[in-house]
Amino acid sequence: MNIRTRLTLQFLFWGAIIMLIASITIYYTASSFRKADFYERLRNNGLSTARLLLDARTIDPGRVLSLEKDNPVKLENEKIIILNFLDNVVYSTDSAREISIVNSVLERSRLLEKVQYRQGHFSVVCTLYQAKLDRFVIIAAATDPDGHFYLKNLALLLLMVFIISLVLFAMAGWIYAGRALRPISRVIKSVEEVSAKSLYLRVPVENKADEIGQLADTFNNMLARLESAFSAQKEFISNASHEMRTPLTAINGQLEVLMLKDRSQEEYKTEISSVLNDIRSLIDLLNRLLLVARTSSAGHFNRSEKVRIDEALWQARDDLKKFNPHYRIKISMDDSVTDEEQVSVPGDEALLKAAVFNIMDNGCKYSPDHSVEVIVRITEPGIEIQFRDHGIGISPEDRQKVFEPFFRGANAKSFPGTGIGLRIVNQIVKGHNGTVSLSSSPGKGTVVTVSLPSAK
How high is the pLDDT of residue 304? Predict the structure, then answer.
């Protein structure tokens, strides 16, 4: 069942409930009013007859009876019986004795002054009447066919109105649901037009204040993120292809040159050594690309183990010096570090070591003296690691882009590299709920600060 049908049925259900309650209320009110009005008219007729009979100087039942026959307000099958204090009948129009005289009812009427009840198809009211010399009980009874006829017609009318209202409610609910869901239909149609080749399309937002507008705005935000992700992916693939093409082209060219003619052993060694360097660069690039792919998924990080940052720094330093013995890396602990628990963070040891390795490598590579100073200090939220170098620095314009993949500053293009080292660092640190900040001036060096939450 679609939403429009469900909304229409709900609209119809509640409309039926409201109409049913209204119809029952109207019928009950009309019935109560008819009953109260009929009993009041019946009592008044009984009192009028009693006044004519009992307030006269001489009681003349025959004269009163003749007057009652011509009474224009006389009710259908009206019977009037008047009894004295001895319960003797002093006046009666009930010649057929259809109305029973019950002693208990007479006693109650003398106490309550008025008693109403049903006897067969008759409505009966007993009223106490105080005359000059005596107290009398008036029993007035009659039928109300007109009142019941009107109530029957009212019930039929209410039933017809109820049925017609259900039809109108169904039509109104269908139209209302259609209009209410029209913006959603437009959103669905707009979303169906979006594909991998048209991520630039957006869902029209008519009113941002209502839920439909918020839904459309949410779709647009999602499409913007998807478009950005697809663009970054395309750019990444393009840059990665370009970076891999360079060493592969160099390897291919060098091998082709070697195949042109016979060479001496020394020349072969020189060319093969150059090819091996290009292969190492290609392997390094592939490893970095795999690390970028791995760190792109936030859910891939394992932060269940405790990693000592000081050990990760020393291991990264030793690994870096194996390939570059001339690099100088000084690691020092601030006075705030007093025990090993303070320098422990929850995370993935291999990834954290790769992050600090990349920062050290960049600092040494771009510094004329190939040196980096690493300072570890304890802060209120966790651990702060500063990497200071005295290298070429970064311009203010380039600082905004250093964390983008394959970006290299204008003054760094003469140095070997791929431009994805800081991108990897940023993703790893963010995956560990940390932050990376960078301050630098051209020609004065760079300070990279990494903040990580403590394992405590």
Answer: 67
